[in-house]
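Kindly go through the entry underneath: sequence plus fold tokens. Please state briefly how this chain folds according to its tokens.
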Amino acid sequence: MRLARIQSDAGPVPVAQRDDRWEVVRDLFAAELEFTGESFPVGQVTFLPPVEPRVVLGMAHNSGRADRALPPQAFFKSPHTVVGDGDAVILDDGVGPVSIEGELALVIGRRSRHLAPGETSAFVLGYTVGNDVTAVGQIPLDDRLVQAKSGEGFTPLGPWIETDVDPASLGITVLVNDVVVARSSSEALAWNVDEQLVYLTSHLELGPGDVVLTGAPGTAAPVDPGDSVEIRIDGIAALRNPVRTGPARAPLPTP
């Protein structure tokens, strides 16, 4: 089933797709969805980010099989970086080189802590398309990755969550200005989804709506202001975002 958040006259509403309608539900994370009776035609809605996470994590050391030689590791991204399909990625003037990374993103469905191997799928609501935008020129300046990972619009997600998909081998295609620049699969990740969630929940609690960007298996590409980005994941959706110029950064204080 496809789950999403859309803009209505009354504000954001959670919806589930049934046939050719997006039908409003009371809670995307309920064990059984409760429909309100209100609905919208497919193709006539404005998508919002599919969730409003409290926690956004990205997996480091997960760009290909060779990373299996390294221990798993994660980094935080600000939840304020999350934007939806069609929203802009903003590159502040002076930020330096920036890359987009097409990634499978998982959405947590319920409280998750100390998960055991083989049981993690029961704690996942579903999967969506993610873009882990990274100011690569900032990485040498900040080993905590705040400067590199938390720019405005640096985590596009959407347009919806797919609940009935196997994450093991999903094709990922990245296009910049309608040209294919990268093509890979979730199968190429060093650490699979089950292993990632076992690792992550051994260190922290995740809750409904939290997001894990599972890694970029050769799906990174440089972008500049004025570019358009499209990330396609087989069996889920295509996520499209323009890249825009932001304001100049204020000068840093001197010692």
Observations:
- The first strand starts at residue 2 and ends at 8.
- Residues 56-247 form a domain with the Fumarylacetoacetate hydrolase; domain 2 fold (CATH 3.90.850.10).
